[in-house]
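U., I forgot to send this yesterday:
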Amino acid sequence: MSSFEGIVHRYTARNVAFEFAPTGREKVLVMIGGMTDGLLTVPYTTELPHALDPHGYSVVNVQLSSSFLGFGTSSLDKDVEELKLLVDFLKSAQGGRRETIVLMGHSTGSQDVMHYLLRHGHSVAAGIIQASCSDRESFGQTIDPPLLATLNAHAQKLVNAGRQNDLLSSEYSTHLFHTPITAYRWCSLMVPGGDDDYFSSDLAPESLAASFGRLKTPLLVAYSENDQFVPAWVDKQALLARWRAATPAAVWSQHSGLIGGATHTVPEPAAQRRLLEMVARFLTELPRAGC
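Result:
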């Protein structure tokens, strides 16, 4: 257990973000956790300030309405709305008039980054996605296919009937950390083509063209080599190659790739160092080369 110096920013009446010391830099990286994450829960978050300090960056760890167990009743749209409020706050006099803001997402936070860049990419300097595995494929490993098809069909029926905000039964939440979940969020996560379905390995080229292909903001992809939430049959290198091919060349960072030896949250010290080096190289080149 540790304590950390910094500043807590209240950027809305009910949302906060923690800025690690050293604070107040003109350049800032905003760290967004994944499903069930909140402040300080992603292992390498507390190492980012040390790694990025020499490059003139502060690090801000954001807490959203969807943090911890709030994801089941939230959405990527709501996350992006709150992230945009944080970006606007950081650019304001009250937030320190930051000139360069980079968004970094871990796991489901990577979906937030993609969703944000496609809507407000002009408002930030770059995006980083780490452990960007498919929730649909990940949870699909643990739920019996016939059962999943039945669950999906019922949830989709509710959405189609305009009851997307209905809470589903415990038969659903038991598969998602016993978290209350709406019909909409279940379909977003579990149904092919759902709003959260950015990273599945079976997405058609047209789907990738509508996401990666529309990016105009520099992007670094740092994919965990040994991510235990990625099915064994997924060829990670081939998947990255598909994403790269779909992304405009001027946007995709040459530093993108697999983090050697890393599992999902990158708790391994050597893998953490590799990730931090990837991020630092990417950020160092932003002003000069764009990505």
